[in-house]
């Protein structure tokens, strides 16, 4: 029975490690806990009366919540591993009151001290397998800290790339380039550059799915609001006379279709056209599509 309880703790720890792997390091980023928390908080914010303000807080708060859940589950998982063997399989320092406390409380205390790598030493494992398990928990705690820092350092550059593309499209829309502007060497370079940036954003949504739940603030920096204009630019390029501009227009249109497919499959589940998906994306982020 003692080993069955410990195996429950092992299962909890492995579940968090799996979620860490899929959220931070797996190319498709299918994290279970993180995706559930972010999706739930996003839906709650959309139903709130303070929707614009709440949507802006979802991304950062959801990341903090996910990291907190990872830490709590790891601590509880290791505590459950220790619990059936407490205090008999551990050595207590002279004068320690640990043996006078409930075994579960001592187990949580030991787990918290170990995962934080404090190493106070008032409770130390005595049996051989526990002497191996305890340092392993410290390694897991260090991995959690490293993973949290890596997650933050990865997600915000992805948001920057998305907002840069949005602002560029907004500036182009304000400039209102004519058919003559697009049907030129500079127009071909412009459309090709936009296609490259759209592909980068598409990859970001694949590898950093959490970025979807970050609200972009103002309309001019919101990709959800200006993607409709990118579609119009692609069509304008496809209708040009110059073959290089038509090719660049085809590239941009293909990149936008690919981005719409990712948004639809992973977040919106609309099964619609590119225009319909982008309109749903804008509505989900409380934005209106910019008209050509």
Please provide a written account of the structure.
The chain is mainly α and 292 residues long. It has two domains: 2-147, no CATH class; 156-284, no CATH class. The chain is built from ten helices and two strands; from the N terminus they run αααβαβαααααα. It has a two-stranded antiparallel sheet. Helix 1 (2-25) runs antiparallel to helix 3 (51-82) and helix 3 (51-82) runs antiparallel to helix 5. It is elongated and about 85 Å long. The chain starts with a helix and ends in an 8-residue tail after the last helix. The model has no long low-confidence stretch (mean pLDDT 87). It comes from Streptomyces longisporus. The chain crosses the membrane at residues 57-83, 138-159. Keywords: Membrane, Transmembrane, Transmembrane helix. Residues 83-152 form the Potassium channel domain.
Itemize the secondary structure elements and their pairings.
Blueprint: H1 2-25, H2 32-47, H3 51-82, E1 90-92, H4 103-115, E2 123-125, H5 128-175, H6 179-182, H7 185-207, H8 223-238, H9 243-268, H10 274-284
Antiparallel strand pairs: 1-2
């Amino acid at each position: 029975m003692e080993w069955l309880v410990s195996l429950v703790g092992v299962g909890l720890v492995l579940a968090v490690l799996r979620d860490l792997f899929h959220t931070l390091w797996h190319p498709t980023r299918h994290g279970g806990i993180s995706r559930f928390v972010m999706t739930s908080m996003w839906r709650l914010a959309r139903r709130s009366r303070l929707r614009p303000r709440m949507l802006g807080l979802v991304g950062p708060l959801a990341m903090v919540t996910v990291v907190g859940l990872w830490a709590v589950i790891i601590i509880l998982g290791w505590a459950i591993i220790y619990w059936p063997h407490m205090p008999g399989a551990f050595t207590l320092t002279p004068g320690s009151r640990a043996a006078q406390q409930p075994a579960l409380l001592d187990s949580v205390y030991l787990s918290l001290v170990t995962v934080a790598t404090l190493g106070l030493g008032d409770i130390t494992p005595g049996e051989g397998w526990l002497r191996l398990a305890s340092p392993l928990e410290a390694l897991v705690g260090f991995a959690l800290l490293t993973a949290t820092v890596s997650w933050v350092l990865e997600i915000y550059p992805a948001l920057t790339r998305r907002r840069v593309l949005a602002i560029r499209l907004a500036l182009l829309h304000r400039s209102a380039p004519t058919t003559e502007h697009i049907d030129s060497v500079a127009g071909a370079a412009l459309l090709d550059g936009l296609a490259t940036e759209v592909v980068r954003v598409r990859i970001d949504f694949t590898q950093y799915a959490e970025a979807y739940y970050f609200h972009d603030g103002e309309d001019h920096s919101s990709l959800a609001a200006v993607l409709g204009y990118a579609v119009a630019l692609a069509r304008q390029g496809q209708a040009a006379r110059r073959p290089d501009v038509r090719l660049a227009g085809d590239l941009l249109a293909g990149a936008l279709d690919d981005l719409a497919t990712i948004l639809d499959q992973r977040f919106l589940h609309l099964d619609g056209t590119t225009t319909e998906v982008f309109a749903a994306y804008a509505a989900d982020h409380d934005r209106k599509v910019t008209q050509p």
